[in-house]
Amino acid sequence: MTTRYRPRWGGLRGRRGIRGLLVVGLVVGLALVGCGDNGGEAGGGTKTGKENVANGFKIGLLLPESKTTRYETFDRPFITQKLNELCAKCQVLFQNADQDAAKQQSQAESMLTQGVKVLILDAVDVKAAGAIVNNAQSQGVPVVAYDRLATGPVTFYVSFDNRRVGQIQGQSLLDSISSGGDPKRGQIVMINGSPTDANAADFKAGAHSVLDGKVNIGQEFDTPDWSPDRAQQEMDQATTALGRDKIIGVYSANDGMAGGIIASMRGSGFNTPLPPVTGQDAELAGIQRILAGDQFMTVFKSIRPEANIAAEMAIAAATGKDFTGQDTTQRNNGTRDVTSVLLNPVAVTRDNIKDTVIKESFYTPQQICTAQFAQACTQAGIS
């Protein structure tokens, strides 16, 4: 009996086997290549830039709104000035979203289409902004989160210690109402910032950490878009519900809303002096209300250092370098731990206007002490 020899890899079955092994080998090879090359990604999947300052490149600046005067008056010019100093040949593309998250996303897409190599993003809605960050990252464009920590693979983040801001506001309000007697002798009203702004949640949490259990919170609101008009309406509602004679203080998350709140109190016939009202951002109108005795305090966040750091972070991210300009910490945005710089806020009352906003050239005495406030300035030692 003759045994026929069959080649091990011969015939149709053998050819299929060879093709199968080749396919497997190709897949494995590609996988190994993929494992060995991360496409220039670093730090939680955020692509680092490869730009050159000497050649210049485009930088996108996206700010959230204009109802709060700081953004157009301070943030935009300060950031642009510092970017120009760091990269003379760079071109800054700017857009303001007017508190519209969908509009901000369209603005970001337009900037990416125009070839920006890094985005500085102050998000209207930090959760919705994750789409902007992910889209930028997919195109190799790093994102610096400015003032508000957006979700997604953000490269760097700069802001103030926002929980500390709320604590300062809460403590200032508590100290003021305690100076008049039992802090539970009446009710306070809390008018918080926008529910879509993660910073507002931090301010609110910080204030509650000081006030809870020590005061009676009669009414509390979250204010869409940080709207002064809406804050005025909310204060009207609180006054109707509680009675003006029962309200001994108001927590306002920022100065713009404080203006609306004070207008409501004036319209409702509150006695003078008004119950203490807090604020934030050291807006010119807020400083003047403090001098006039209508607003008790504000929180000064020196914007120039924040803007300068944002510009430095943007250049570092675009050129693929680590940020080493300041003491950094880590903040988790739900996606990753982000290298962050958190600056310290300062309480401003009538007693230290001269040593804060004037000393740091945020405003000049001439800007503050208009004819309407000239006497109040003299009384506060400002000339």
Automatic annotation (TrEMBL):
The keyword Signal applies. It comes from the Bacteria. Residues 59-321 form the Periplasmic binding protein domain. Keywords: Signal. This is Sugar ABC transporter substrate-binding protein. InterPro entries: Bact_Solute-Bind_Prot2, Peripla_BP_I, SBP_2_dom. Coiled coil: none annotated. PANTHER family: D-XYLOSE-BINDING PERIPLASMIC PROTEIN (PTHR30036). Pfam families: Peripla_BP_4 (PF13407). It is found in: Cell envelope.
